[in-house]
Amino acid sequence: MSPVDVLDQFFFVGLNEHFEASVCLFYDSLLDKKHFTSFCKGSKPAVPHVMQGSWITKKESTSGGGGRTALDAAVLRSAVRTNELDFKLYWAASDGFKNKIVALEQKAGLSLL
Q: Could you report the average pLDDT of every consecutive run of 10 residues in the chain (113 residues)?
């Protein structure tokens, strides 16, 4: 099953690093015009456009900097495969999310990203 197939099973996918746009997309997906208008078109919400501490705003290394630990080669291969799948899923979600946000921006006359 491809990452897109997995994502197609979800009603909604948002991105933490684009919290405000995610909330707007969520309200739009629910057809909740009241909350969409209040949150997305009203006075700016008290949440940042891009969440502080996300990988977008974080400049320093996120590694712990600790010492190395010897791990079994099979465990390392499994971790690498899992990480690769995670990245495929994230980038598929990101692409789909951004396409939906562009459509929402055009429909609502907003600039969210």
A: 86 92 95 92 60 60 63 87 90 93 94 89
